Amino acid sequence: MDLSVMFFGADDAGGGGRHAAKYDEILTIARTADELGFTAVWTPERHFQQVGQVFPSPPVLSAALAVATERIAVRAGSVVLPLHHPLRVVEDWAVVDNLSRGRVGISVATGWHSTDFVLAPDHYADRRERAHRDIGLLRRLWAGEAVEFVDGTGRQTAVAPQPAPYSPRLPLWLTSSGNPATWEAAGRLRTNVLAATIGQTRDELADKIARYRAAYAAAPDQPGTAERGTVTLMAHTYVAADDATALSTVDEPLRAYLRSYVAQTAANRAGDGRAAALDDAQLDQLAGFALRRYLSWGSLLGSPDTCRATLTDLAELGCDEVACFVDFGLGLDDVLGGLRRLGALGKEVTA
User: Where is the Luciferase-like domain (predicted)?
Assistant: First the structure.
């Protein structure tokens, strides 16, 4: 079982230099995770919302993380592929790969929020098909293959991206919000899969992992892929000395984060409108319910013993890596203290 650090963005820092301070915190957390032996640090792609204000560009931030760390993998969780030309994705990440000496990986996301697609409005309706189709193209371009595209004169021209990456293989994940079809697609495409424990039961997750493993085993060999795929699950994480301390520490920031996330969902014009209709009391009730679910299964919120049991359960389920979601509103000292306790626990679990 590998343990990584996941940033997903709970930031209402605003202006006045406070976003600069947030980047300082991210660098501090990444350096600490590197020193503690965590496998990877993941940064998301987020646009135009309160949740994730400081994460519009994973490759830009990852370039800073690459030079600030020594051994930890630097990954995008995720790249919303329909918002970008595949050539530009490969160019950007090849730079980060060289800066990090081969430590990059990216998780491809289809995108979900309608407002994000002001960057590529014509790509919203068929975003899933575009993302899945372009995964093979990413692999070809990363390998240095020249591929034909239409140039400024309207004619086809063969282009090979530069610079050449440091690593010959680009580790790829496919991000799933829970749809079993996405897990099966990841298997057919022979990508790894990035998902979350939240929003599904243990039995549902076991079924999705089984579907993924079967699809991966049945898929034909594809250049640059591993014999077995990696299942990475994101989980809210704070390890404290005891369960009561963990709960009292995370209660308020996690409730606030959940309220912000619901507000972001309500702003999605492709949604069903139910989230937008909730009043403050209903939002508080929903946040409390979600918090109780997190504590009942699938989170790393609690004492070392509680979190050890969760990690053991996830490993038995078929999870290969837990991406520990740490920036849901905790203070920097709490995040770092929790990481140190988790790092010690991780050495037991991975031994």
Answer: 15-320
- Relative to beta strand 321-325, strand 300-302 is unpaired
Cα distance between residue 97 and residue 127, in whole Å: 26
Q: Enumerate residues 6+ apart whose C-beta is below 8 A from 96.
A: 59, 62, 63, 66, 74, 104
In this structure, of 41-45, 251-255, 288-292, 332-336, the range with the lowest mean pLDDT score is: 288-292
CA gap 314, 287 in Å, rounded:
24
Quick one: which of 106, 168, 104 has its CA closest to 141? Answer: 168
pTM, 2 dp: 0.91
- Write down the residue that tokens 């343990």 correspond to: 3
- Contact (Cβ atoms closer than 8 angstroms) between residue 336 and residue 32: yes
